[in-house]
Amino acid sequence: MDTGSDVVWFPCTSRYLCKHCSFSSSSSSPRIQPYIPKESSSSKIIGCKNPKCSWIHQSNINCDQDCSVNSCLNQTCPPYMILYGSGTTVGIALSETLHLHGLSKPNFLVGCSVLSSHQPAGIAGFGRGLSSLPSQLGLGKFSYCLLSRRFDDDTKKSSSLVLDIEQLDSGKKTNALVYTPFVKNPKVEDKSSFSVYYYLGLRRITIGGHHVKMPYKYLSPGEDGNGGVIIDSATTFTFIAREAFEPLSDEFIRQITDYKRIKEFEDVTGLGPCFNVSDAKTVSFPELRLYFKGGADVALPVENYFAFVGGGVACLTMVTGPERVDGPGMILGSFQMQNFYVEYDLRNERLGFKQEKCK
């Protein structure tokens, strides 16, 4: 489930190829039967003239102007190639009936992937685009509560996902949520890749009550569309542009004086700063608090921003990248959302959240 993209896709061939993937592409899991379009009476290939063809390509498609009327009508939507931060997937657009928790949705646009690299078994795009699951179902809101990563290998426990539409009554009460409005990116129309993101107005960050001074251009989208803060369920560790990450990292280093810094672990894990806490009877790190537009603020539990990586060493679970960043300046990842109920209120253009035990 990916709030940073908008296409719903999955493998739909018995000869599906997936390189460097976390599951076997040659033999499907016995729990998941492969989907074969020709065995479904309701599956249809999307035509080039179908508006949904431009949904999956995020642009207007130029169909062959020299074809006859009949061949134009039969011309299929060109194959898609979707680029993610970690890999790609390639396939064709289909129309199919979606059956979900008592709901039946005909003519649902899905991606029929035949080749992928560095991908899971499929992705449900929950972003802002027309092809996303929330958009196609007309959701007024959706929400999730992500389990602690301690339960990653426990098949008996799973996180919750609530879809709020007229046909579905979740019964979930959302009292005591704090809300922050979604922020608009000025370049959404020009750069379609930005249009799927949920931007948040992060005003400041404090560590141990001390304000971390970050360049504002990374916290708010600029005139060129770059910068700003998005929330993305498919990003694991929060990503922060280097120029904004370094003041945050330096502040942790300045305040954490009880534990020795272990740079060797930083080189191995790609995380940092890292500290040796093996000799400590109790482990204590400075509070990390995020302040959002609209008066919402949240203090993250320490297990949401520091993790043990072995040998009694704990590392900051936020990462950075190259000097120059095209795109968001900060991506709030799922590791930081553990044991938070998070609500995407699409009707009112706002994000709500509260801390709770998701299991």
Automatic annotation (TrEMBL):
Pfam families: TAXi_C, TAXi_N
SUPFAM superfamilies: Acid proteases
Gene Ontology biological-process entries: proteolysis
Keyword line: Aspartyl protease, Glycoprotein, Hydrolase, Protease
Domain of life: Eukaryota
A GO molecular function held by the record: aspartic-type endopeptidase activity
GO cellular component: extracellular region
Domain Peptidase A1: 1-354
Family the UniProt entry places it in: Belongs to the peptidase A1 family.
Protein name according to UniProt: ASPARTIC PROTEINASE NEPENTHESIN-2-LIKE
Naturally occurring in which organism (per UniProt): Salix purpurea
